[in-house]
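A student in our group prepared the protein record below, which I am reviewing. Here is the record exactly as it was handed to me.
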Amino acid sequence: MLRHLRPHSIQARFTLVAGILSLIVLMVIGVGLDLAIRTKIEDGLFQESLRAATYVTGWQAGSTSHLTPKARIDLLQLVDSHGRVLAASPEAASRPFMSTLRPPLYDPVQHRTECSPRSGCVVLTALRIPPLETRVFWQGEPHYVLAGTAQPPLLAEHLLELFIAAGVALIAALATWGTWWTVGRALDPVRAIRARMAEITVTDLSLRVPQPPGCDEIAQLAHTANQTLARLEESATYQRHFASVASHELKNPVAGLQTQLEEALLYPDDVDPRDTIRTSLSTTERLRAIIDDLLSLARVQTVTPAPPEPIDLGALVRDEASARVGDVPVRVRTHGEVKVLGNRIQLIGILSNLLFNAQRHAATIVEVTAAGSDGQAVVTVTDDGDGIAPKDRERVFEPFVRLSDGRRRDPKGNGLGLAISRTAAEVHRGSLRIEDSARGARFVLRLPLMDADRPPARS
């Protein structure tokens, strides 16, 4: 039930909490202030009444029936032990004895505020006359002086409490409004971010949220959101391009297959069914290869691989090189033990693709090296072919991109091998690129060494 009553707005919640806390704190301060002021006023009156009572003790019996008021202390009475008023100031003459307070001998001065419905409240001091004077004037019978004055209106009419309560309410209201305004100003960038995020759609990821100045949490949130939007836009652009190219690559063999089958149906006497089936199988095989490579690329990008394991990259290079067959030999050189953490299947796939491409384009030999350098395992695959122009060195890693020399040497290829290899290298927090070489193409794979102070491959 209480959860439904709780404000949904952060601004309202903060304001409510701040208002309640400020009211509680100010009420405590107000009560303390009220007690302090009341005590201060009463202490001052008690001091004056004590001085007045001390003066009256010098009065002698029978000298006068009235006492002379001193300063603000206008209520003076001299009473005996039986409560009879023996003398009084003019203001106190019409009153009965003001108090039943009778200080003992060991505590001759006592203060009190006496209240009655008829005469209101009186702040007074009761003073016991010293024994020496009582023996002289009254044969030792105790006598008392009562000195006081009416309680000030500030205390009697509770004006002090009203003023303090009004101040507490005003300050609490100002604190609540200030919290509302401050939190609202702090949340203005969040509202702007939310409004801009509502405008962003999957078809248009070019918008960015407004980033406030400074380095506070909201500015960092906006910066992170913009980085995320940039990655999403890049990913969406890549996916649209990939889908377009994949559709084009799949469209040609599908269209060829459809044409062959239609010819077989339309011209059964002119088309040999066995030739049609043989050609269709070849086309289907190409479609299957393209689809398998597409699934491999998607799997590398999205599917979480098996937990990483320690792998001797030098030994893996030697094993893959020894398994290669073909007219172009592969020469391997390794320098020490090069251990990395990674997925064995994916690393084998990278090396297999690199060696296959190198053998396909090499003239006489392929050279492979594996060594550790600056906390990284570095594998180079170099062929002595025609090489790759600098302008095409990044293009060859894009899906379905095939240079003219590659089409000539491998007409059935689909241009996904290098894209899959680079993605797998990035999954291992490494890199795969083409670097300069004296002759041919030089592919360089870099992966973090297992014992380096770098995070392991993503698991």
